[in-house]
Amino acid sequence: MEVRACVVLQDSQAKPSGYSLHQLQGNKAHGTERIGTLYKKSEGLRKVWQKRKCSVKNGFLTIPHGTANRPPAKLNLLTCQVKSSPDEKKSFDLFSHDRTYHFQAEDEADCQHWVSVLQNSKEEALNKAFKGDQDEGENNIVQELTRAIVEEVKRMSGNSCCCDCGAPDPTWLSTNLGVLICIECSGIHREMGVHYSRIQSLDLDMLGTSELLLAKNVGNASFNEVMEADLSAPDVTKPDPSSDMQVRKDFIMAKYTEKRFVRRQCADAAAQLQALYEAVRCRDILSLLQIYAEGVELREAIDQPNEHEPGETALHLAVRMVDRNSLHIVDFLAQNGGNLDQQTARGSTALHYCCLTDNSECLKLLLRGKASVSIMNEAGETPMDIAKRLRHAQCEEQLTQAQTGKFNVHVHPIPTRREERPVSCLLPGAASLARDKPRPQVPSMMMNNETYGTMMELPPPGPPLPPRGPSRGQAGTTNTDTKCDANDSRV
Ligand SMILES: [Zn+2]
């Protein structure tokens, strides 16, 4: 499988060291390995170019130390980003999590050669990592990748404080909403139940990267622009870190179950469905969140131009429109939309659509949510029948795993330090609600959707979305964030 994209890793707020696979593709002809001379700019005040015999292999760049008895630096390319230097044709930079390396090659062609090999090697390592083999070395790569994504999530806007009470350094994640909360507030989230919030620890649980999809694409600041748009109600007090549990509970219940602080923007049900359609079509997670917050029934069929089958829901639409940047849209609908098995007028479920389009990554997200594998469409075909007929081997493999009960195999062992989990002081015992949900066997963050665009026609651009509102919280202003660009890399 060729890695086409890595959807969770890019973020408008990301520092240069942030991951991205959306960078230039390497020239495949240069392969994945290389040994040769590079000049590395030294750190410190005296910037000098140091000659080093570097090598690239198995996803690592090895840079020998100037002093013979010191071990070489070994950089995991999965956690680095390579960029050609726009000014200096024979130079490139490599951003790791903690520093930037400046390199100079012999000449421009040599530089492009190095950059290609680095990209290719990184891609090869990712491919290996996501084949799901239980090989220890590969698991380590996935774990390292997961840790790096967690670090990026923690750096996102608003994520340094609890989404509900503002306590510093929250370490609990609502995986279906993509926000970080503190331990006290997480107890109340668990009480609400998993249909409102699925809580996992960023530190204790070994999260799958698929569980970080929404975290990487929502974040506390954006979430609260929608969910706390209007805190002016007289009977409401937003808790602070010192608030007692009752104050927290009143606020959190009002915020998440009643969605009391949301500014409604859609005039009626028809406008809501239209907005839902536009949010999915434009792959705009915050518009989708706004619609969810207005209480729109996400599983309702949407009348739309260019539908593949009549009676598609937002989830069907999201599956067939998914691209490298929008797997989180499918994830949001799968986790918050209510029913994964809704059928079109021709009996297709979202799983049927995944198998039609050979989209095994969406398939994993749906299987994780326990979508039914046995529903037949009007032609009498199950998703498996379609996968077999079209020879979509990865879909077939995932479905087989689901049918044989092997789908829930965890990529990572899960630590068992459960005594450290938050327990609500209001409802003893409620703390285990979100535990043990099934996870995909491998992270759902890559897609191979070569078939897209040929199998299904994408709808033409439509009218702009209704303002999501308050650009950064102010009513009546134009929402400059609402965009409808398939290449939008908000993620
Ligand atoms: Zn809190």
Structure in words:
The chain is of the alpha+beta class and 491 residues long. Among the domains are: 28-130, Pleckstrin-homology domain (PH domain)/Phosphotyrosine-binding domain (PTB) (PH-domain like, Roll); 136-257, Annexin V, domain 1, CATH 1.10.220. 30% of the residues lie in helices and 10% in strands. It has helices at residues 108-130, 136-155, 183-192, 220-227, 245-257, 269-281, 285-293, 314-321, 327-336, 350-356, 360-368, 383-389, 393-403; strands spanning 34-41, 49-57, 60-63, 73-76, 81-84, 91-95, 100-104, 172-174, 179-181, 199-201. The strands form two sheets. It has a seven-stranded antiparallel sheet with strand order 4-3-2-1-7-6-5, with helices on one face. The protein has a three-stranded antiparallel sheet with strand order 9-8-10. Residues 1-23, 409-483 and 485-491 have low confidence and may be disordered. Bound molecules: zinc ion. Residues 162, 164-165, 167, 181-182, 184-185 line the site of zinc ion (ZN).
